[in-house]
Fold this protein.
Amino acid sequence: MVIKALAPNGGTGEFSYSKNSYFQKQNLSVVESKIEEEIQKKLDVNKLASASNMIIRIADLGCATGPNTFMNAQNVIEGIKHKYQSQCPNTETEPEFHVFFNDLPSNDFNTLFTSLPQDRSYFAAGVPGSFYNRLFPQSCIHFAYSTLALHFLSKSPEVVQERNSPAWNKGRIHHTGASKEVVDAYATQFGEDVGKFLDARAMELVPGGMLVIVMSSVPNGMPYSEVASGMLFDCMGSILIDLSKEGLFDESEIDSFNLPCYASSPEEMRKVVERNGKFSIERMELTNPMPLLKNIQTLIPDWITHVRVVMDPIFSRHFGNQVTHQMFQRLTKHLLDKVQVLETKYRDKTQLFVVLQRKEVFMDRLSHQISEDERVKMAINTLPPNGGSGTFSYSKNSYFQKQSSSVEESKIVEEIQKKLDVKTLASASNMIIRVADLGCATGPNTFTSAQKVLEAIKNKYQSQCSNSETTPEFHVFFNDLPSNDFNTLFSSLPQDRNYFASGVPGSFYNLLFPQSSIHFAYSSYALHFLSKAPEVVQEVKNKGRIHYTSASKEVVDAYADQFGVDAGKFLDARAMELVPGGMLVIVMQGAPHGMPHSHIINGMLFDSMGTILMDLSKEGVFEECEVDSFNFPYYAPSPEEMKKVIEKNGRFSIERMELTDPAPWLKSMDQVIPEWILHVRAAMEPLFITHFGNQPTHQMFQRLTKHLLDKSQLLETKYRDKIQLFLVLKKKE
């Protein structure tokens, strides 16, 4: 069995990486000043920024979670800012920063995104994928760094698992203390992996861009058994042997397990860099990762906890949770008992610090494409749909949305063919087309929509440049609120996708991207959700209701005003982010001009929800005032309302605007009420749970199905034809 690397423990629990990364912080603090020194001496920030529309793109490769992630990013940004200010002391403009946090799809991006600093001075995106493959379009990253990650191999060497191989590593879990054949197998795997890492970065970094690597290492020629970490791995193996003899598992499980971890010497790293040939070595040296550590005995328990949060997933995947837990429990005592031996182990210069700079060479764009292998003041704030893949998850209940959006597919293709100048956009951006999905949620619809947009843009480019052998590369940004289930989204990314993918946590009512960096943006079934319920509704007393349906004119006007403010902010942000000539497509709930929402099928839905919640309050499940203080943040505008917001913004031309029938296939409503409510629940449940709690929300949705079935004849009379608003906007030149 080939053991592959996994991301560290997620979450915020006792053994989470976010709570146990102080040692790593100390290790990195050793090289902070050195990174800034290299930026000051050798990174031409003025030249890089000027060539990229004043946007500096930074990649953290192997970001994990926790405070170190954001501290590293901030330190790098401050270093680059200082260099720019020293180069351009008289300028009033500064570059914008776009930071890409990369790790394996199994990393806990949910925790990462919800803990992003609120006062950060950069745009943030998450990038799921192995850094041994391509992660970004060609020549788009200016500064990349990988800290304490590159010593993890992509997998354990296959040959050490083969019983008939001279390199069979029987009875051990690592190359520490093993035969020369085993050590050589690990060294070969490291060379292959880092070769791929550098090949990928050489494609992604701009000429003159910088790559910083901090990783575990050993002095040239020193056996790993002489290093403190080598004794750690030996102890792990001994404990696992003991556990197998106690009958917890078969000893063959140890023979088939080898930790995918290798600490190279500077000489080994130098050879890989020189073989790649596309980087100059600006600095390479061994450093002491823990200069403050004098007495290791006092820190052994903390040390083991920090090791556990990083390696626990790999051991748990192979041996199971219980065995892994026992191993780590015994490991602390084992090392404390052998502390005198541990004190003799080498632990000074065991961290490799490398600074590489991308050579100024021209590359053939055709030299690499994405291969198959790389593939309460009570304002109610909006929340994303249900995550995961359970009964009430959005990923399992978004078929109706798919059907509704499919109505517009051919129209989007038509508008791209007629009005998007892909050739000009691609030529002006180094043949990279950046696409943003605003309000992506999770589930198959997300990727279907992206693929159809990309196919249409590709077809338009081919029609414009029929004799060209090159095609643009695509970078797709999937945006939703930080509480969206990005973990599920990233783990279900299509393996055969032909685009680079990033997740962008944040409200689309704010800026999400640097200025003039997006070529095509779309928002499907999201913009009718307001940023919050209108605060004034609490004052005009929408008593006994949860929405503006059937409410007073004052309440309806408050919702309309809130929509105007929110949609205005949405367009202001997109006007900053889209390039001139870029396209924005919106599909959302709408309403014919002048039609009360109570006449529309969704209006009856909200009225029914309110009625059921009032019934539950009368049954004593909660106070009636809880209903009075809840107003659902949803508004379906008319085309006229939307047109006013666009014209007020003034930076978009309206290429197409129309109301469409979202469900022409739906003839008899009573046949699909149970499914309809499941879809509504998947999208809206988090908001109700936040206010009313799990049990009342569950009861409401259970009763809602029966309520609407009992009133299906009335429901059939409600308007449901032209209630989907389709817009195509173009950023003015």
User: Anything to note?
Assistant: Residues 362-380 have pLDDT under 50 and may be disordered.
